[in-house]
Design a protein that fits this description.
By secondary structure, the protein is α/β, with parallel strands linked by helices. Helices cover 30% and strands 17% of the residues. Strands 6, 7, 8, 9, 10, 11, 12, 13 and 14 form a nine-stranded mixed sheet that branches. A four-stranded antiparallel sheet has the order 4-3-2-15. A two-stranded antiparallel ribbon has the order 1-5. Helix 7 packs parallel to helix 8.
């Protein structure tokens, strides 16, 4: 059974890529329970803080009968949304799915699928379909969008959440990370009484614009302004100084440095809040916003608004593939302690420890094949 015509139309603009439809025979979930990556998989500065708990979650798989495309890991709550979405959008299998319009098909097939956990599930299924399409072609995903890459490396900034220790250790990590990354991001703890001297000294020695602070939408804006005052505009940006529901209340320039937000955009329509607040740095996530095509629409909207775009690290690989072909992405987020865990299911991690930039992927799909030792059964949805 084919989807009704009004669900198939792709809202991707006149310059959407021309990608062939992909046969879909199976959609499945695959549970992960893998040992933590070895410390050597992480940046040397943060190895004392590496997590040793198992990597758990779910992969979403889309198969054509011969090959599989995958995305993950996603957590249990998002994985539980996948069966209903697939049943609504693809009521009968096998079926043909257009990667360009597939995210929109999923979002419109089920009420409320444009936001929250359903949007995350939409993103995972759509990204798995792109992985399958690229593996069928024997090419990285970016090669389906453009004939050539315009760069061979893409700038990254380092997120240092999870580093533990006293002031001396935090100072040492900051300096070590600064050797290879132009910008590093920390939790607000670095502005607290125990670490503010370390932070102000770092800004004094390395210059302005090298450090960002993420407030996670949990602080009142006046508290953000007070906490940042000792740095006198020396930050690269303040991230989520407003809760995602209140971004539109922001005033341009109120923090004295760039205002970054947008990882909780669940689609291009949510970008209206970022425009209303004149947010300086947009941070969409390909998983949260519903997939590659939605990410592309938001990145282009940022460019039209005159904003920088620094996609959130949960969708690092899709952002990396778009940046490779010259889509206006300024920098991408690399979480030093989390990214090796996000790539644990892959046979070869596509983002080895870099020197401030990430290499453009060359393996088929998002990052090549799965590990051969997963040994897990597929559960059809």
């Amino acid at each position: 059974m084919s989807p009704t015509p009004d669900l198939v139309a792709a809202d991707t603009g006149r310059d959407a890529p021309d990608t062939p439809a992909v046969p879909v025979v199976r959609v499945a979930l695959r549970e992960l329970d893998l040992p933590a990556p070895a410390p050597r998989a992480h940046h040397a500065a943060v190895r004392p803080d590496v997590r040793t708990d198992a990597v758990r979650g779910w992969l979403v798989g889309v198969g054509d009968g011969d090959r599989w495309g995958w995305w993950g890991p996603i957590d249990d709550a998002a994985a539980r949304q996948v069966p209903g979405l697939v049943a609504a959008a693809l009521p009968r299998l096998p079926a043909e799915a257009d990667p360009v319009g597939f995210g929109r098909l999923l979002r419109r097939a089920t009420r409320h699928a444009h936001t929250g956990l359903l949007a995350v599930a939409v993103g995972a299924i759509e990204l798995a379909l792109w992985d399958l399409a690229a593996k069928r072609a024997g090419q990285p995903v970016w090669r389906l969008l453009a004939p050539t890459a315009v760069v061979d490396r893409v700038p990254a900034y380092a997120t240092c959440f999870g580093v533990r220790g006293d002031a001396a250790r935090v100072a040492a990590v900051m300096d070590a990370v600064a050797e290879t990354y132009a910008v590093q991001k920390w939790d607000p703890v670095v502005l607290g009484p125990d670490l503010i001297d370390v932070t102000t000294d770092f800004v004094r020695r390395h210059g302005p614009g090298r450090l960002a602070v993420d407030f996670h939408g949990r602080w009142r804006p006046e508290r953000v302004r007070a906490a940042c005052a000792p740095l006198a505009g020396g930050l690269a940006w303040v991230e989520e100084p407003y809760h995602p529901d209140e971004v539109d209340r922001a005033r341009p320039g109120e923090f004295g440095v760039a205002h970054a937000a947008g990882e909780h955009c669940y689609g291009a329509a949510d970008a209206a809040q970022l425009r209303a607040a004149r947010v300086d740095v947009w941070q969409p996530d390909a998983v949260f916003c519903g997939g590659l095509m939605s990410l592309l629409a938001i990145v282009r909207a940022a460019a039209r608004a005159g904003a920088r775009c620094a996609p959130h690290g949960g969708g690092l690989l899709p952002a990396l593939h778009l940046a490779a072909i010259g889509v206006p992405i300024d920098v991408i987020e690399l979480h030093l302690l989390l990214e090796p865990r996000r790539c644990r299911h892959l046979a070869q991690a596509p983002v080895p420890e870099p020197a401030g930039a990430l290499p453009v992927p060359t393996a088929p799909g998002w990052g090549g094949d799965l590990r051969t030792d997963l040994g897990l059964d597929l559960a059809d949805v």
